[in-house]
Design a protein that fits this description.
The chain is built from 14 helices and 13 strands. The chain has helices at residues 3-11, 24-31, 56-60, 73-78, 88-105, 126-144, 156-168, 179-187, 199-207, 213-218, 221-239, 270-290, 329-343, 373-393; strands spanning 16-21, 41-44, 51-54, 82-85, 109-113, 116-120, 148-153, 173-175, 256-267, 293-304, 315-326, 350-358, 361-362. The strands form 3 sheets. Strands 5-6-1-7-8 form a 5-stranded mixed beta sheet. Strands 9, 10, 11, 12 and 13 form a 5-stranded antiparallel beta sheet that branches. A hairpin with a 2-residue loop joins β5 (109-113) and β6 (116-120). The longest helix is centred in the middle third of the chain and has 21 residues, at 270-290. It is globular. Bound molecules: magnesium ion (MG). Residues 20-21, 24, 115 line the site of magnesium ion.
Amino acid sequence: MSSGDARKKNAVEKLFALVDCNNFYASCERVFNPALRHKPVVVLSNNDGCVIARSEEAKALGIRMGVPAFEIESLLTAHGVAVFSSNYALYGDFSSRVMATLAALVPSMEIYSIDEAFLDLTGISPEGAEALAQRIRKTVLKHTGIPVGIGVAPTKTLAKIANHLAKKNKMPVCLLKGEEEITEVLQQTPVGEVWGIGRQYSAKLTARGIITAYDLSRAPEEWVRREMTVTGLRTRQELCGISCLALEEAVPARQAICTSRSFGKPQGEPGPLEEAIATFATMCAAKLRRGKSAATQMMVFIHTNAFRTDQPQYARNRVITLATPTNDSILLVKAAVEALRAIYRPGYLYKKAGVIVTGLVPEGEVQQDLFSSAETGKHRKLMESLDEVNRRYGRQTLQVATQGTTRKWRLRQEKLSPGYTTRWSDLMEIRLT
Ligand SMILES: [Mg+2]
């Protein structure tokens, strides 16, 4: 069977959507601050260093991604650009809201990053999928205030490309379907922009005359397997419309809690990374306990700074299904550190890490695992005292030992917006007179 035949066969079988929040951090800053609507907004990296998110108006001013704030200070002042430090508590909370909204609209999804999710739309006709995508966009905007762009295509790799296309053409939804249309788009997509093709492969492919995504989809299968391993071959097949990558979330995620941070200083050593991941896991656990829920799955992710083109790049995540749904800090820290150890590689400078817990179930519904019930009982009492102490004396007064004390990964935040949704003292006040 040729790739073309396979594509036709597959096209009726699979359909994926990639939902990506537009200018996510900048959009979050706007939700509770309507005065910022139609105004340029930028969000700075940790330590208020570089621009990491821009509203459309800020992009129109020519502010580039990754530019150091001090270099454009006069431009920022001249145009009255609203400048914010990264407020990850706010972004994490909005991420959870967006993901929960998506989870309620489709039977299965995969949380891919803080502001992206893959949805499985298999079984829906192209017209139906387009209408559903429009409805998803409207619902997310209404429930959370966050605008999203959606790419729909027969494979995850093509859905990523469809999403880029939507963004480029400033369309909310882009459906990529039909051999001719896909071919045309692939011919216009540089191979380096294909999901999963890193800088190294990109340089290597270009040197061999494989310039566009289309060229890669036409490259001989044997050659691709030899030069780029089976991972590269999967990418090639996916470009041909043959779905090789399934959703990584088998269990439908009903809700999610995400805790992630960029580090004040990039971290290469495993120690500070473990402390950070452990801290994120305890923060997720505390949020779970506050909501009287327990998590079924956990995802841990780490990545290097994509803007440092002079440094080797690495990004991985690991999804762990927990033996029993839990909100126990000790168990969640243990799982998170295990996941981190599985994906951590030395020789890279990590910029960001995070923990996302998904598949939330009510605490009371959790079936106790017979073999761990004694331990679980002890832990529960410990967690209750931990929460009580931290409630009385402030967050992070009592910690799990893995969280450490060096805090090398901490960040500087001088222009932080309020924790509108996560801190009682920062709640908005509305006066009615
Ligand atoms: Mg985005």
